[in-house]
Design brief:
Blueprint (H helix, E strand, L loop, with lengths): L7 H27 L3 H8 L5 H9 L6 H20 L1 H33 L1
Helix pairs in contact: 1-3, 1-4
């Protein structure tokens, strides 16, 4: 392993764990602050039947969008490394990605048009 390479264990135990912890902590803080009385919200959060409140914490706030995105990039990093090591696999991956992009965009376009046809 060269000096610039990072092991998968380090990626998950160090980087992803830090980002997930920061996301959870800030989401919890923003949830408590945004709902008004902090003490009342904190006590009511863990009472039975409060699944909606916990879902409010998990979904978070719009300005924290980048934290799950960064965690996703770190999670995909080992796969991207393996793909980029071999030229043949890189070309295959690019071709498959391009084909799926075309197919998915066509399907989405078709479904949107079908939706508007059905409505009118």
């Amino acid at each position: 392993m060269s000096k610039n390479e990072i092991s998968t264990k380090v990626i998950f135990s160090k980087y992803v764990l830090r980002i997930v912890t920061a996301f959870a902590a800030w989401s919890f803080i923003y949830y408590l602050v945004s709902k008004g009385e902090i003490a009342e919200q904190f006590v009511g959060l863990f009472s039975p039947g409060r699944v909606g409140r916990l879902a409010g914490i998990i979904t978070s706030y719009y300005h924290l969008w980048f934290l799950p995105m960064i965690a996703g990039i770190y999670i995909c990093l080992p796969i991207i490394k393996k793909i980029s090591e071999d030229d043949k696999i890189s070309n295959y991956f690019l071709i498959i990605s391009f084909v799926f992009l075309l197919i998915l965009s066509y399907i989405i376009f078709y479904l949107i048009n079908l939706y508007y046809i059905i409505i009118n």
